[in-house]
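Worked Example 4.2. Read the sequence first, then its structure tokens.
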Amino acid sequence: MEIQISDEVKQVIPDFKIGIVRYHDIQVSDSPQMLKGRLRLFQESLYFDYADKKVTDIPAINEWRKLFKSVGTDPNRYRPSNEALYRRVQKQQFLHNVNSAVDLNNFLSLQYQIPLGIYDADQLDGTILIKIGTEQDSYIAINEREVSLAKKLLSADQQGPFGSPYVDSKRSAVTENTRNALHLIYFQPSLQKDEANQLLQALSSMFTQIHGGEAVYEVLG
């Protein structure tokens, strides 16, 4: 599965980089109690940490708001997924458990303060392109709503868009039947490549500790 960044994205965001982890032969299940407890405690800790602060002052979230603006997305209307998670925590709307892969993905997004997407690789087809959406781009999101991806950063395969640092599609969602997965890690542009590789190593190791299987990672951009 080849993954490319479009020329338009490179022109609009010269420092754009994305982490890619390919997982093989994993086992997704209900989250182990350790992960459920850790996710809950971390959200409670963040709630107290940011009770009197603006989440938009978090450097990584601020960078992603600027990145959204640069591609034509209004971040006050369509928030990056990392900001949306932090705002939920601020309101004590703590995340519901979905499955081990989704719960860990959310935990990692909160921990690293960046958007992440986890996808069922067997539901994806052919070359994947990271690009800026047009009026023709849309999908049914994981919240069952049809989402327009015009002027939004997205990931598309041969069937069309399937993911975005805004909200992901239902088509590519990871379930307990998933055996092979693709993890996209949307780094803030200022992050250095060696730091990005270290983050991918830690992240993929944590994922395989819970799900088994093998992981291969790389940084594009």
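Now turn to a second chain, presented in exactly the same format:
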Amino acid sequence: MDSDLYPDLAAAGSLAAALEQLAAELDVDLTVVPGDWGPLASAGIASSVPERKPLSVHIGAESRWFGVSGWSRGVELITGATPDLAGVVRAGAAWGRGRSLRDLRAELSFLRAGERAEAHERGPAAVVELQWRTMREQATEEPDSTGFGELVEAAHAEPRLRQLYVFSSHWTLGFSSCTGYPFRNEVAIVPSHYGSPFRLKKHPLSDDVLGEAATAEEAVALAVSHLPSDLGPAVAGTAEHDG
């Protein structure tokens, strides 16, 4: 930590201590927890909302700034950077109280939340809808030789796949029953490439091939046959924790 950039942190002894001292001066109630990169350069501000992880705070190395990141259910909902430590204290308190993303951005201009984050705040159905729309838009830009575009459209036409969170990895289309990362992979389809068959896998990085198909529609039908019969729409959360 550069004491010229961070005289307040140097005087307090750590980022965590500086946050606690400033919160007391501002009469802001918050709980500071350990960060991911040691007490000098990072800290967390705890949340009373169970699904929200502590707001992560870290410092810049070459200029004075404090970066913040707020995660919930496997998704980064809020991010930003400011040279003002008081802004970080206020952001941590507001995040911890469960303030909406809209309210957070209105109150603290340095915070950012994208379309995907706002969809997560509305619920898993909104996330799935946005993800499919984004995937279909991306597919229109891919070369025809990959078979990726026709696979995306065929999968979207199938209701049982359309209710799942769709993502891609190295051209392979994956389907998850949760909307946060790490995903719960239900099935994945490798598109045709220059006439090769479509291949079905359990997840995108799996080496095991569950089956092959000549067309995108046949690959989708094969994928559906491997889904659990009681599988419903994707839920909020991750493969490690739902809800």
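Notes for the reader: The radius of gyration is 22 Å. The first strand starts at residue 32 and ends at 34.
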